[in-house]
Structures are given as structure tokens and as C-alpha cells.
Design a protein that fits this description.
Belongs to the EAF7 family. The protein is mainly alpha-helical and 132 residues long. The chain contains six helices and no strands. The chain is elongated and about 70 Å long. The protein starts with 29 loop residues before the first helix and ends in a 5-residue tail after the last helix. 7% of the residues are buried.
Length: 132
Amino acid sequence: AASPAPHGGASAGHGGPGVPAEEAVVVWSPEVEVCLFHAMLGHKPVGVNRHFHMICIRDKFSQNIGRQISSKVIWDHLSTMYDMQALHESEILPFPNIEKNFALPDEMIQEVREGKVEHLKTNSRKDITWTF
């Protein structure tokens, strides 16, 4: 009989039967963490663009270690080292984000009451010219 492959019967790079390769366990040695930090250079996985930055981090990290790793594996590991929620909340938004209640202008409300909006809506569809 053949001897089992390492990692619980899975061949190298696979997480086992029914487990995709990208969900395989990563042994977070200091060398592997250095690869992660190199992949993170120029990419901050916090703030409104955190998921876009994570895609770049994941791709660079996977290339550095020579196998595909999911973003979830990286998020999970970063969460063991940092309070990711606190970092995300402390991030300054790159644009103003003021919340206020929305109110239709009075003239629009009056047009709706008078039935002008429906009339405009049906007529404007015929007059639309699309230019590209």
C-alpha cells in the first residue's frame, strides 16, 4: 500500500478531499509572514478600498509563495495580528460622507401633485436621443 501524502492525505498544495487548494492551511512561519508584508507594500487593507487592496495583496502573496491563497486566509491571519475593525473605523474617508435626510424640492412635490411628472415621463421617452 502507498504511504499517505503529507498534510492529512492530501498532496502538496491541497487541503484534502473536498477542500479547495486556496483554503489549504498556511503555515505562518516568519519567512511566509515576510512574504505577506512584502505583498502588502503599497496596499492598505483598511478603509473603503480595502477589498481592492486585498486583491492586489492576495495576488502578490500567492505569487511570492508559489501557490494560490484565498483572501479569507489572509484576512483571518491579519485579524490575529491586528484589530482590523478598529483600523478600518479609524481610517479617514477619501471623500466627504455627511449623512442627512433627503427631501424632494417643493417644486417637484407640486409637479407630482399636479400630475405633470407622469406626463413628462411618458413624453420624454420618445424624445431621448442617445449619443456615444
